[in-house]
Each structure stands twice: as structure tokens, then as C-alpha cells.
Amino acid sequence: SENENLSAHKIHRKAIEFVKAQAQSKIMHKIEDELLEDEKYIYKRGRNAKSATVPKNADVRDYRMATGFEALLGYLYLAGQKDRQEYILNRCIEVINQSKLGE
Fold first, then answer.
1. Rounded to two decimals, what is the model's pTM?
2. Predicted pLDDT at 45
3. CA-to-CA distance for 1 and 11, rounded, in angstroms?
4. Mapped to the 3 state alphabet, what secondary structure does 34-90 carry?
5. CB 27 within 8 A of CB 95
6. Half-sphere exposure of 14 toward its Cβ, with a 13 Å CA cutoff?
7. Tens digit of pLDDT per residue, the chain (103 long)?
8. How far is CA 19 from CA 7, 41, 72, 86, in A?
9. Is residue 72 a contact partner of residue 42, using CB atoms and an 8 Å limit?
10. Where is 85: in which H helix or E strand?
11. 65 and 51 in contact (C-beta within 8 Å)?
12. 31 and 77 in contact (C-beta within 8 Å)?
């Protein structure tokens, strides 16, 4: 197998990247309709940006949505929109908790 020669640390890093992209993509599916116009614009710009690489074990669509999510959080932080950033992060927690309950 391709992963046999990887150290435990590298396998761990790959697994985190996969889970992170998948979770962030799931969050965006749930909250995209709640975004304000400027937030949707930033999210879509981040999502559609060309990436030099995509982790081998991450789905391209999930990875792009995760990139958009991260762009959105960075935008809110840089714009000093602390209340809105808190709202989005609290929604993330709600979405993740709901998905865990549904497992």
C-alpha cells in the first residue's frame, strides 16, 4: 500500500487534512444560505481559486469548499467583524454536534 512507507506523523497529518476538508465542506453546505452577500462573494472567491495542490486523500470539491470557508473566516477576522465571525463559528459547532448526533 502507498501508506506503508509513511511515518505515523505523516499519516496523522494526512488524516487531519482529509477530516478537516470534509468537515468544513459539510459546514458550508449547512450554512451557505445564512451568509450575507459580501460573505458569499468571499466564500465563492476562495472556493473557486485555483489551488496548486489538493491532498491526495481529500475530495477536490470538499477541499475547495474548505478553502472558501477558510477565506471567509480570514475575511471576517481582517474586517474586524468579530460578532459575525463568532456567529459563523458557533454555527460550525452546532453543525458538527448535529452531525455527531446523527451518526
1. 0.77
2. 96
3. 13
4. HCCHHHHHHHHHHHHCCCCCCCCCCCHHHHHHHHHHHHHHHHHHHCCCHHHHHHHHH
5. yes
6. 11
7. 454 566 777 766 666 665 688 889 999 999 999 999 999 999 999 999 988 777 777 788 999 999 999 999 999 999 999 999 999 999 988 888 888 776 5
8. 19, 25, 19, 22
9. yes
10. helix 82-101
11. no
12. no
- Which residue matches cell numbers 467583524? 81
CA distance 43 to 35: 9
Per-residue DSSP letter, 56: T
Taking the C-alpha atoms of residue 31 and residue 27, their distance in angstroms, rounded to an integer, is: 6
Amino acid (one-letter) located at 77: Y
Q: What is the CA radius of gyration of the chain?
A: 15
Cell numbers standing for residue 81: 467583524
- Whole-number pLDDT of residue 13: 67
Give the cell for residue 93. 459547532
Can you read off the three cell numbers belonging to residue 4?
A: 506503508
Phi, psi for residue 36 in degrees, rounded to 5: -75, 165
Place of cell 505523516: 10
